[in-house]
Design goal:
The protein is 52% helix and 16% strand. With 691 residues, the chain is α+β, with helices and mostly antiparallel strands. The chain has four domains: 14-96 and 213-293 and 572-687, no CATH class; 109-142 and 148-196, Calcium-transporting ATPase, cytoplasmic transduction domain A (Distorted Sandwich); 297-324 and 459-560, HAD superfamily/HAD-like (Rossmann fold); 328-455, 3-Layer(aba) Sandwich (Calcium-transporting ATPase, cytoplasmic domain N), CATH 3.40.1110. α3 (37-59) runs antiparallel to α4 (66-102), α9 (275-294) packs parallel to α22 (622-646) and α10 (302-310) packs across α21. The model is unreliable at 1-9 and 213-217 (pLDDT under 50).
């Protein structure tokens, strides 16, 4: 299937980079910066050190070298700008994607009608004037003017403007495939649509608002982390403020050195505060939404992405989610005394005119196993189509009846013609059902020749994906309306942890509530109106874009590809966001250890020579040590921007193992990297005699 991709948006796009540079300066506005308290405190520190630098120049009697104060001020400002730059890049990618979506929106002429009739008189109006509840007639080769529900007719619709998928899809009144999206195109037939969204409130408008990123609401985990960062910042601020009287007292008592200056104390505060994670935190959240959008998934709330990362129960429908959706012929099983070829010919004749996926699969199976059998119906054939009443289909050729259908329907037909059921047929039917298949009996006139086994085909790799989810503590639950025997067989083959057979729509809601009452975070997928209550109840509700309007409105995540297995990708991205945040937080806090050994000895060892033992990096001088730490603290932010945007790769492993992995990779790395970086920068500073 050909696929039209969205406009590719790269973080290194010159337009995005240049816009991000401008936005980095715009975000210096206190009204913007106050939303990131840690970086707001760094900006205040930058102002203080800049004032100290200017005072030193003007007075001619600075407390420390003017070059030192000036360079510290420059790098503190760069620390704030790098933080703003990281957020601006992530926002820029979202805005670029929003621009490409806006290009797909169009103001078109709508044929508004008063009654849902194809012959009703119409009034041509602009799509922008349509209101919720209006009825519109959409003809072949016309754009659908607004989001709505098909109330009459059926049509092929090209949804490439929204989903990027070039293959048309059927949208029809009733059922679970009735929702249509504004700016998509009808390419065959006519439909009457009831508008379900007022101007500016349509699905594309909501998508644009979300992918822009700037309007993304903070999630509970993100807020909790910000509270922790603010608490740590306040703690380090108190430490630094209390350090000043300590240095005053120490210099008086020892007679060596001088009290710590404002510049030194500010540098100490900035280096010890969790500036790295505070600078990258906004970018991590916005980039997560962007990664979802790249997979054709739109999160209608940031909270949904966070919840996806915490999900520990996945509720999945069987058909179309775990299996491919259409059952296929798996085997032809003849009754006692019937040849395999005789059964195959009868099954083929009864299926050649059957356009259903099951009928086509029978033709494929017979053609594969019996190449000599003709695949053409004789011209005198009379086709008997399938109906819900008869539950069988077939063809009459020269007065001979070839039929296939549900076991009870075929048995009733044969009995009515005076035939009898082969003694081994009940056992064959029971064995097929026990294996999770669906039996179709095949008959010719009054004789049952055997059965065709239809089987649900698992989606490739689905069992392995369930295994990966189980390794991280996520329980998978299959729910299906099939009988218990079929449900048991499919559940065992797919490797789910639990299943429910013969389930009704209200059972989904009950199962979700039961799991939530036990403290689990539950995700589910659905596309029908009867799924809407359960989608709204679930912590993560994923609606198919092809589904009904109630389902799309109840969910907090929309899959534009209408692929139910995408739920597994959504969980993975949610976990990637949480892992990225946790990993960078670990790295940021570990950074402080190295910076502690760089700055504290530099500040105090003049007064207390014994503290020189802590100068394990053998830094050149107090001023070069402090400046090197400040420079490293600033440079690490842009160096980590790619990781914040792409995320830490999801690794299926238990929580304890994941904690150890983060501690070793990012904790140990966060300690080692600053030791190396600060030492190299100190050598460079000392080598060129900057301070």
């Amino acid at each position: 299937m050909a696929r039209k991709k969205f406009t590719k948006v790269s973080s290194l796009d010159p337009a995005i980079l240049s816009a991000a540079c401008v936005d980095a300066f715009r975000k210096l506005d206190f009204r913007v910066q106050v939303h990131n308290p840690v970086m707001f405190a760094v900006e205040l520190g930058s102002i203080i050190t800049t004032g100290s630098f200017l005072w030193g120049l003007a007075s001619g009697a600075p407390a420390e070298p003017v070059a030192f104060t000036g360079l510290v001020s420059v790098w503190l400002w760069l620390t704030v700008l790098f933080s703003n730059f990281a957020e601006a890049i992530s926002e820029g990618r979202g805005k670029a994607r929003a621009t490409s979506l806006r290009q797909s929106q169009a103001q078109v002429t709508a044929h508004r009608i008063a009654t849902p009739s194809f012959t009703a008189p119409s009034e041509d109006v602009g799509s922008g004037s349509l209101m919720k509840g209006d009825l519109v007639l959409v003809k072949t080769e016309e754009l659908i003017p607004a989001d709505g529900e098909v109330v009459a007719g059926a049509a092929l619709v090209n949804e490439a403007a929204v989903t990027g998928e070039s293959a048309p899809v059927v949208r029809e009144a009733g059922g679970d495939r009735s929702a249509v999206t504004g700016s998509t195109k009808v390419i065959a037939n006519e439909i009457i649509v009831r508008v379900t969204a007022s101007p500016g409130e349509g699905f594309l408008d909501r998508m644009i608002s979300m992918v822009e990123g700037a309007r993304r609401r903070k999630t509970p985990n993100e807020i909790a982390l910000e509270i922790l960062l603010v608490a740590l910042t306040g703690l380090f601020l108190l430490v630094v403020l209390n350090l000043y009287p300590v240095t005053v007292y120490s210099s008086d008592v020892t007679g060596r050195g001088a009290p710590a200056s404002v510049t030194v104390l500010t540098a100490l505060f900035v280096c010890l505060a969790p500036t790295t994670i505070a600078a990258l935190l906004p970018a991590i959240g916005i980039a997560g939404m962007d990664r979802l959008f790249r997979r054709n998934v739109v999160a209608l709330s940031g909270r949904a992405i966070e919840a996806a990362g915490d999900v520990n129960v996945l509720l999945l429908d069987k058909t179309g989610t775990i299996t491919l959706g259409n059952r296929k012929a798996f085997a032809c099983i003849p009754a006692a005394g019937v040849s395999a070829e005789d059964l195959a010919i009868t099954a083929l004749h009864s299926s050649l005119a059957d356009e259903t996926p099951e009928g086509k699969s029978i033709v494929e199976l017979v053609a594969k196993e019996h190449e000599s059998i003709s695949l053409v119906l004789p011209p005198d054939s009379t086709i008997i189509p399938f109906s819900a009443h008869s539950r069988l289909s077939g063809v009459d050729i020269g007065g001979v009846r070839y039929r296939k259908g549900a076991p009870d329907a075929i048995i009733a037909l044969v009995s009515g013609l005076g035939g009898i059921v082969p003694p081994d047929m009940p056992g064959i039917v029971e064995r097929i059902a026990g294996d999770g298949g669906t039996p179709l009996l095949v008959s010719r006139d009054e004789k049952i020749l055997g059965a065709v086994q239809l089987k649900d085909i698992l989606k490739p790799g689905i069992r392995e994906r369930f295994f990966d989810l189980r390794k991280v503590g996520i329980r998978t639950v299959m729910i299906t309306g099939d009988n218990i025997l079929t449900a048991t067989a499919i559940a065992a083959e797919a490797g789910v942890d639990d299943f429910y057979g013969e389930a009704k729509p209200e059972d989904k809601l009950r199962i979700i509530r039961e799991n939530q009452a036990k403290g689990y975070m539950v995700a589910m997928t659905g596309d029908g109106t009867n799924d809407a209550p359960a989608l709204a109840q679930a912590d993560v509700g994923v609606a198919m874009n092809s589904g009904t309007q109630p389902a799309r409105e109840a969910a907090n995540i929309i899959d534009l590809d209408s692929d139910p297995t995408k739920l597994l990708d959504i969980v993975q991205i949610g976990k990637e966001i949480l892992m990225t945040r946790g990993s960078l937080t670990t790295f940021s806090i570990a950074n402080d250890i190295a910076k502690y050994f760089a700055i504290i000895p530099a500040v105090l060892m003049v007064m207390y020579p014994g503290l020189g033992a802590l100068n394990i990096m053998n830094l050149g001088s107090p001023y070069s040590a402090i400046l090197a730490a400040v420079i490293f603290n600033a440079l690490i932010i842009p160096l980590l921007i790619p990781l914040a945007l792409t995320g830490v790769k999801f690794r299926p492993m238990p929580a304890g193992q994941l904690f150890t992995y983060n501690l070793v990779i990012f904790g140990l790395g966060g300690v080692i990297a600053p030791f190396i970086g600060i030492k190299l920068i100190d050598m460079l500073i000392s080598g060129v005699f900057l301070v």
